[in-house]
Amino acid sequence: MLWFLLIAVIIFGVVVYRSHLFQQFLAAEGIKPSLNKEELYSLQKHFAYYRALPPKSQRIFAYRVNRFKKLTEFVPRHMGEVTSEMEVLISASAVQIAFGFADVFLAHFDRIIVYPDQFFSTADQRYHKGEVNPAMAVIVISWRHFVEGYATEEGLNLGLHEMAHALQLENVIMNDEFGFMDEDAIKLWQGLASQEMRLIREGKSTFFRSYAGTNHAEFFAVAVENFFERPKEFSEHHSALYKTLADLLQQDPLLLR
Ligand SMILES: [Zn+2]
Q: 1 by DSSP, 3-state: which?
C-alpha cells in the first residue's frame, strides 16, 4: 500500500513538473495559457469537432490551438490580412488531426500561406485549393475551400486533407516529432489501402471519391476527410480500414458522436 502511494506521489510529481515546464516554455514564447473569449466563441460556433468534445478535452484542445496559432506564421496572399478568427480555425484543423498525439504540433511546418480562393501553382502550372510543401516547410490553403469544407459533412474537407498530408510527412521528417505513428498500423494500412485503391481504380468502390485512387498519399488524405466527417458510413463501408486509421491517428470520431 505504501509503495502504491509512493509511486502515485512520484507520478503526480512528474506530471505537475512537466506541466510546470510547459507553462514556463509557453511563458518564454510569450504564449498565453489559452484562447481569449472571442477566439473560444469562434471555435464553439464553427467547429463541430470541438463542440463534441467533453469539457476537459475542450480545454486541452483550445490550449493546443492557442499554442499552434502562436508558433505558426500566417501569411496572407492576394488578400489584406489573415484575421485572428481565420488563424484560430486553421490552427484548429491542425490540432484536430493531431489530437491523438499529445506532443505533435506539425513542428516542421512553421508557415501557413492563405489565399482567398484557389491559386495558381508554378510547380505544375495548375490551379490548386491547397498544397503542402515540405521543402519550403509550408502549408497553403484556399480560405474559401477551407470554409466550405467545414460547412458541410460530406467527406470533403480541404483543411483536413492538407493537414493529413502534413501529418503523414511529419511522421517521416527527422525532428522531435519523428515516428509517432505505430509501425504495425502503418503496414496494415498500406495493405488495406492498396486493396481499396485497386477497387476505386476499377470503378468498384462507391464510398471514396475517385481522387483517392491517385496514390497512397491522396488515399490517406481522402480517407482522413471521411474519417472525421462520415465516421459511421466509413466504418460500415470498411470496418478494418476505419479501425486501422483510428489506430494510426490514436483517436476515434465515432466515440464523439
Ligand atoms: Zn492531396
A: coil
